[in-house]
Amino acid sequence: MIEISLLICTRNRSTSLGTTLASVAHAVAQAPDTAVEVILVDNGSSDDTPDVLASWRAAQAFPVRLVREDRPGLAAARNAGLAVVRGRIIAMTDDDCVLHADYLPALVRAFDEATGPAVIGGRILLGDPRDLMVTVKLEDHPMVADPRGFPGGFVMGANLAFGADVLALVGPFDERFGAGAPFVAAEDTDFLFRATGLGIPLRYDPRMTVDHHHGRRDTREERQLLTGYSFGDGALYAKHLFRDGRVLRAIMRDVGDLRRDLRDPVRTHAGIRRFYGFRLFHKARGLYAYWRRSGVTRPGPATT
Q1: Which helix (H) or strand (E) segment is 93 a member of?
Q2: pTM of the entire structure?
Q3: What is the rounded distance in angstroms from the CA atom of residue 155 to the CA atom of residue 31?
Q4: 159 Rama sector, left if φ>0, alpha if ψ -120 to 50, beta otherwise
Q5: Does residue 9 sit in helix, strand or coil?
Q6: Closest Cα partner for 258 from 281, 241, 228?
Q7: Over the stretch 256-291, which tens digit does the pLDDT of each residue have?
Q8: Deepest in the core among 3, 14, 71, 158, taking most CB within 10 A?
Q9: Which phi and psi (to 5°) does residue 212 adopt?
Q10: Which of 88, 91, 36 lies closest to 62 in space, CA to CA?
């Protein structure tokens, strides 16, 4: 019986993918008593990624499944991988991350300590000190998300896991969200929002650790990234606004945060002035874009 299904989606990163795959092989070797399968989804690569994946699979003693998904978008790729997973625990990381050697035992311990269905995210450290301090999660203590709040940023898709029972309850990722999709980001936040809305606890466990080699070193790249995150969150607000009171509370909090641009300005993002106003502006863009694309004029039926 498979204990862990590790899902990695990739596109056109053949030159750097080997580092991620080597860390996976090393982590599996450090957990000889844990049955692991690795699901590798090629999201329509045009470089030699298929050859890299096939060669790596041939060299492994544990099960490796290759999936091709040509529809663009991280959510579509993840759903293609989720359709074939067999593990009790489903873990996801990105193709620019490196697993710590003890990642798999830490993952098993985290879920063994959970009572019932759970979603658990882990620690994400900066892989290269030359990169900007974005897309990281540095807290060194366990946390549990407030189920009444908005889960954006509490944990991240680069180090995220949930039980097969959670997938059955929550359903697939919304393919309109995420990298390569119309709403750019927030596919993981949407999944978390739906999970916590069903009463499934969302936890953070720093024992599950990866290093993120995201490669962004220019403040223009940081600005583009954070623009996308806010745009995706705004579209997510629009999706759930009429059926979940947590969205209205999140919007009110965002508006209230505007005063912090004067009283307690964010200084960690050098390329962005008035961070809270910047974020709210792009959330409003995303909310409008969702309604315009969906033709929403009144509350509609719930969708996943």
Answers
A1: strand 89-94
A2: 0.94
A3: 24
A4: beta
A5: strand
A6: 281
A7: 999 999 999 998 888 899 999 999 999 999 999 999
A8: 158
A9: -105, 115
A10: 36
